[in-house]
Write a structure and sequence with these properties.
The chain folds into two domains: about 100 residues, P-loop containing nucleotide triphosphate hydrolases (Rossmann fold); about 70 residues, no CATH class. About 40% of the residues lie in helices and about 15% in strands. The chain contains eight helices and six strands, in the order βαβααααβαβαββα. Strands 2-3-4-1-5-6 form a six-stranded mixed sheet, sandwiched between helices. The protein is globular.
């Protein structure tokens, strides 16, 4: 799968369609990619600020660069700025998901790859995630909440096969992208 510069691609389909396997292949083939797996994998005993610092580990000696990235993250996710000293394990599920995404963004990835980034999030958090997706991004989801808001292109999988690959407007006009494939 090719992601054009600045493109946000949604990989959608029913459970078991092969979305996660495709994301894993993309990450393996893309140097500098950051992968955000499903399931909110945080470091619960670390603070929010410490979790973010882990994301910038590669550049940890460049304090100005890390501070600049942290400020950007705080602008994107002001809730995380408010909770910097709080242990990550005490955050709500939605806040933990935002933290995982923010941690990946701290690495300034060449490609951001997210598996079910809005699972369990309420509408305000989904909107925050949508606003944070810029640059080269691929995400997978079963529902269409984020794809409707932010995807430039939609790729529909079924049993590991691409059955539709189209710009967002064309994809949403296609009958294959309907109730038969997706949970809404």
């Amino acid at each position: 799968m090719i992601v054009a510069p600045g493109e946000v691609v949604a990989v959608v389909g029913p459970p078991g369609a092969g979305k996660t396997a495709l994301l894993e292949r993309i990450v393996a083939a893309t140097p500098g990619a950051a992968f955000v797996p499903a399931g909110r994998p945080i470091f619960p005993s670390l603070t929010v600020a410490e979790n973010l610092a882990v994301g910038a580990y590669r550049d940890r000696r460049d304090h100005a660069l890390v501070a600049e990235r942290r400020e950007r993250i705080h602008r994107l996710f002001p809730r995380l700025a408010e909770r910097g000293a709080q242990r990550a394990g005490t955050l709500s599920g939605g806040e933990q998901q935002l933290l995982v995404i923010a941690r990946a963004l701290m690495s300034e990835p060449s490609l951001l790859v997210l598996d079910e980034p809005t699972a369990g999030l309420g509408p305000p958090a989904v909107e925050a995630v949508a606003e944070a997706l810029e640059g080269d991004v691929v995400f997978a989801e079963t529902a269409l909440r984020l794809a409707r808001r932010r995807a430039d292109r939609v790729v529909l999988l079924d049993a590991g096969e691409v059955v539709l690959d189209a710009p967002r407007t064309a994809a949403f006009a296609d009958d294959r992208l309907g109730e038969a494939y997706l949970v809404r």
